[in-house]
Amino acid sequence: MRAQDFARAWTIADRDLSTIRSIGPAKHEGPRHLQKIWRGEDLGGRVVLVRCYHGLGDTIQFARLLPALARIARDVIVWCQPALCGLIARVPGVRHVLPLHDGIPDVAFEVDIEIMELAHALRVDGEDAGMRASYLAPAGPPVALPAHDGLAVGLVWRVGNWDKRRELPADLVRTLLIPRIAAFSLQADLGAAEVAEIGARDISSADIDVLANTLIALDLVITVDTMVGHLAGALGCETWIMLHADPDWRWPAAGMRTYWYPRTRLFHQQSPGDWTGVVAQVRQALCDRVAAISSPRPGPA
Predict the structure, then answer these.
(1) Is this prediction's pTM over 0.90?
(2) Residue 237 CB neighbours (<10 A)
(3) What are the mean pLDDT values of the chain's consecutive 10-residue runs (301 residues total)?
């Protein structure tokens, strides 16, 4: 999938699925994020429960496939993280959304699948997986940013406990605050002192719809590899993502573009743990962007 060789990906996935069916554990045993739910069952004409057992970013990324599932299923029910219920409920074809919790879902269904298994089950190709338009629609009123001059840039540099290699030191974040940039922190649950130290203004929100509307209001989102990058990309926002040297499979090992999010630009570490080169590239790109919008346009001939 990283190389967009989907036929090869599904050949490998079919082989692994055959092994799971013959000697693998039962469907719902073990930690949720390690469970393999789909066993090759036909999804056509059936009531399908989609389980969202991974991170918020994973659910956002693969929600693009829910309309395709709805075209073949009789009904689509999504059991997803509570914070995302509103966004997912507005995806075309989703009939019902339940907040994910421990235990079993209180709903009748005929077959189930984990949301990240949809690509295999639907045997998507590059056209299916590639994003042609925004597929998420936030609710609520537009967000008005605080008064500012220059390019409104949202920043995310901290990550959760999974894979701390993705995290950017705060002192490097400060170097991105160049003239004609209005920096805004999107970093949830962060002390005011660190936000102030960086020189950004806090516009973060734990409400996903508010966050989504905030991202839409910004000129640019600069983030490490975290949920905000997926949300901004899925909304069609211009997004720059800084990646460590060995990024997750969904990102290309090199290059600036990804079929997942056409308006997203990638910046890669060249050596493990060294963020200085990445930040220098982002800073230069910001300087170029500011220069481009600051240059006077030629008048009429």
Answers:
(1) yes
(2) 23
(3) 93 96 89 94 98 97 97 98 97 96 94 98 93 93 95 95 90 95 92 86 95 98 97 97 93 93 96 95 96 70 56
